[in-house]
Amino acid sequence: LEVVVTRNIPSAALNVLNKRFKVDLWQSDDIIPRETLISKIKAKDGLLCLLTDKIDKEVLDSAGDRLQAVSTISVGVDHINRSECTMRGIKIGYTPEVLTAATAEFAVGLLLSTSRRIVEGTHAAKRSNSVCFFILCQKYKVTNDVTACVLVLLVDDKTTDRVGTILILRIANFSHSYFFKKDKAFEENLWVHFASFPDLLRESDFIISCCSFNQSTDGVFDKEAFKQMKNSAIFVNIARGGVVNQDDLYDALSRNVIRGAGLDVTTPEPLPTDHPLFTLDNCVVTPHIGSASEKTRTEMTMLAVENLICALENRAMPAQY
C-alpha cells in the first residue's frame, strides 16, 4: 500500500508509517504546492494531510479509485470535501481531544497579549526603552485589566465545548463572569451563565470565539456584531477565519468601534503579509499555532497516523469523523 504525507512530520510517526507502507513524503515544512499534491496523490491508497491542504473534488479525482482514507492532523475538517469522500467511500480521520488543552492555553495567551498590548510593548521597547512606558500608558489608552471583566466563550458543538471547558478552568483565577452560547447544564458545573448572542455581544469585555465553522457561524462576527460590542471590547478568534468578516473587523478596529483583536485563524491562511489587518497596532495575528506545542503536535500526528493505518488495514479508526 502507498500513502502520501503532505508535510514533514515527527520522525517517530514517519517511522511507524514506513514500517507498513510505501511513503511518498513532501519533505518540507512549507505548504505542499497544489499541483504537486495533485500529482503525488495519483494511485495512492491513503493521504496524511494538514489543515492547509485543500482536499477537494479535483484532488480526489486525481487520486482515483484506490484512495481509501484521508487522515488530517487537525480537529477541523472543513478543508476536506466530506460529501465527495462519503460518496466515494473514503474514510476521514481527524485529531480531536489531544489539542484541547494546548489550544485553550494559547487562547489565554492571545487574550493577555492583546488586552495588555504585549506586542506593542515589545515594539516600543525596541524603539526606545526610556519612553516605552509613557507610550503605552499615556499616548495610547490602556485597555481594561483582565480581572473583574466579563468574558464570553462562543461554542456550538461537543468539540468546541471541550476547548471552552478547559478555557474556563484556565481563566478561573481571573474571577470573570462567564457566558456561553450553550445549554444551561454548564451553569451548575462550570460557574457559567447562559445568554443570547446579542446579550453576549453587549455585555462582554472579552469575547473568545472557539466555535466550529458551518452555515450558522459563517461570518457571524460582522459589522452588526462589532457595533453591538463595547468600545472597550477585545475580540479573540481561535475558531476558524470564516466566522469573521475580516473587512468588517478591520473597519471596527481602525475606527475604534472595538478596542482590539487577537487572531490565530484567518481567511486565507497564511494571511498575505500586505493584508490591512497587519497595519493595525491593535490587532495581534498569529499563524494558526494554537496547538503548536511539541507534545501536542506529536500526539496529533501519532493519532492521525494511527487513523490512517487502521483505515487501510480495515480496522476501526480511533477518531473517524
Task: Explain what the structure shows.
This protein is an alpha/beta fold and 321 residues long. It has 2 domains: 2-96 and 294-312, NAD(P)-binding Rossmann-like Domain (Rossmann fold, 3-Layer(aba) Sandwich), CATH 3.40.50.720; 100-285, Rossmann fold, CATH 3.40.50. Helices cover 39% and strands 14% of the residues. It is built from 13 helices and 12 strands. The chain has helices spanning 11-20, 34-40, 57-63, 82-88, 100-115, 118-127, 132-139, 158-171, 185-190, 197-203, 223-228, 246-254, 294-312; strands at 2-5, 22-25, 46-49, 69-72, 91-93, 150-154, 177-180, 192-194, 206-209, 234-237, 260-263, 283-285. The strands form 2 sheets. Strands 8-7-6-9-10-11-12 form a 7-stranded parallel sheet, with helices on both faces. Strands 2-1-3-4-5 form a 5-stranded parallel sheet, sandwiched between helices. The longest helix is centred in the C-terminal third of the chain and has 19 residues, at 294-312. The model has no long low-confidence stretch (mean pLDDT 86).
List key phrases describing it.
321 residues; alpha/beta; Rossmann fold; 2 domains; 7-stranded parallel sheet; 5-stranded parallel sheet; 13 helices; 12 strands
CATH superfamily assignment of the largest domain? Answer: NAD(P)-binding Rossmann-like Domain
First-last Cα distance: 22 Å
Query: Which stretches of 5+ consecutive residues score pLDDT under 50?
Result: none
Proportion of strand residues: 5-15%
How many strands, which pairing sense, and closed or not: the largest β-sheet? Answer: 7 strands, parallel
Q: In the CATH scheme, what's the topology name of the largest domain?
A: Rossmann fold
Number of domains: 2
**Strand line-up of the largest beta sheet:** 8-7-6-9-10-11-12
Q: How would you spell out the order of helices and strands?
A: EHEHEHEHEHHHEHEHEHEHEHEEH
- Individual helix count: 13
Helix content: 25-40%
Gyration radius (Cα, Å) is: 21 Å
> Structural class given helices, strands, pairing?
alpha/beta
Give the rounded overall mean pLDDT: 86
What would you say the CATH architecture of the largest domain is? 3-Layer(aba) Sandwich
The CATH class of the largest domain is identified as Alpha Beta
* Annotation, overall tally of beta strands: 12
Shape: elongated
